[in-house]
Amino acid sequence: MTSVFRDLPGQDAVVAQLRRAAAGAAVVLDGRRPEPGAMTHAWLFTGPPGSGRSVAARAFAAALLCPSGGCGECASCHQVFAGTHADLLLVRPEGLSYGVKQTRDLVLRAAGKPTGGRWHVVLFEDADRCTEQAANALLKAIEEPAPRTVWLLCAPSAEDLVPTIRSRCRVVTLVVPASSAVAKVLIERDGIEPARALAAARAAQGHVGRARRLAIDASAARRRADVLRIPSSVTSLGPALSAAAALVRTAEEEAKAVTDGLDEPERDSLRRAFGEGSSGKGVAKAMRGMAGALKDLEDRQKSRATRVKRDTLDQALLELALFYRDILMAQLGADVEFANSEPDLRAVASASSPEATLRRMQAIMRCRERLTLNVAPLLAVEEMTLALAEG
Ligand SMILES: [Zn+2]
């Protein structure tokens, strides 16, 4: 039997914890008492980006809703993975924050009885984006849960949520999986050739989705190569400034490719919902309603575009930081697995000192911080590349 937990490489402890919980949940549905500590109504999935916290939460949701505890093959399991299961509420904040009104709506919907007779599962990705008021609304629902509602919150770390919510959740901690475990998934599931799979897994540092993209998407691999050329190219003011401009532009293009693919279908389905193109009574009124809804949608899309742009640039900066970490390890002669196998790594390493490398890493981290403070991206990145050039 395949299992819903098969896509969680290197997360054996988490898988064991969730299997036990799912078994406990089935016991509850039978009207018996589960073993103590197995099942609870609020869960918090934490782990670094790409470790698979939402994959784990989704698998757990499937296990709770599946009549056979998460077979991965039945209609219920398929619906959970397609996001169409009637008893699964998927929440994915698309802007930078999730408001109190949205949260109150969510709490109301979550309180309903499950149509399939098992559980009503709310999977809340990026729960750390809740505003303070939203978190308070959420807290009430978690403190007094409806008998058949299960909350699955996801956040990078437990500290990203207010203590009151954190303390009421059972925490599931995903770890950064070993490159070999990630490569194994790419080889077995996606049929990627072993050497390529391992190189991509190392480059992605345990981020399964990113590793897969690097292995199969040539443009993602090319963009990464562009980022990694920065250390050897920023030798003076001119190259530093043009490297900054290129980095910001590439991140914007990549983000646009992502959001364009989402925006268009959303606008179309909204228009269809308002029956654009039909005629007769009430059309004028419907058109006015649509204008308002379209404006709301555009606002949400704009907010999402900002977030995707920021995330994409941040990803590039993390890659750059990782490259310097490799350089530092090479300079210190440390015996560790390098994320990068680029040939010029050693050349860059021998051309500078560990102290300079550390200063450069600090410049990258400072840039990331400035970006979260809404400093204009080009300005923050230029400051960084100039610091990289200086050493
Ligand atoms: Zn199933």
What would you note in describing this structure?
- The model has no long low-confidence stretch (mean pLDDT 88).
- The radius of gyration is 24 Å and the shape is globular.
- The protein contains 15 helices and 5 strands.
- Helix 12 packs antiparallel against helix 14 (354-372).
- 61% of the residues lie in helices and 6% in strands.
- It has helices at residues 12-29, 53-65, 75-82, 100-110, 132-143, 163-166, 179-190, 194-204, 208-216, 218-233, 237-273, 283-332, 345-350, 354-372, 377-390; strands at residues 42-46, 88-91, 120-124, 149-155, 170-173.
- The longest helix has 50 residues, at 283-332.
- Strands 2-3-4-1-5 form a 5-stranded parallel β-sheet, with helices on both faces.
- It is an alpha/beta fold and 391 residues long.
- Residues 66, 68, 71, 73-74, 76-77 line the site of zinc ion.
- Zinc ion is lined by residues 66, 68, 71, 73-74, 76-77.
How would a textbook summarize the main sheet? 5 strands, parallel
Strand content: 5-15%
State the helicity in percent bands. 55-70%
What are the low-pLDDT stretches, counting only 5+ consecutive residues below 50? Answer: none
How far is the N terminus from the C terminus? 55 Å
